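Prompt: May I have another protein with tokenized structure?
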Amino acid sequence: AAAHVASELGIGEVMSEVMPADKVDVVTRLRSDGSRVAMMGDGVNDAAALQTADLSIAMGTGTDVAIAASDIICTRGDPRLAVDALSLAHATDRTIRQNL
């Protein structure tokens, strides 16, 4: 699912199945290299990395702590909803900029 979502969004590098203890380190390293980092997760072990990422997306079926740490919450447990959420965000941004 991660590769599919990434390809739909034009994301070049995908890291999935990262060990819980390494998630924050991976996000921090990528951000220190100048990359903008999106993180998707649903569990307690994802919360710190979600908070560290530039854009964090939680599954609504996940834990409360992951949901609280995220910028976007997909109401169902389907990671493909992130594509719809970001498309909607871009359309909203365009409309706001046109109305300024």
In short: The mean pLDDT is 91.
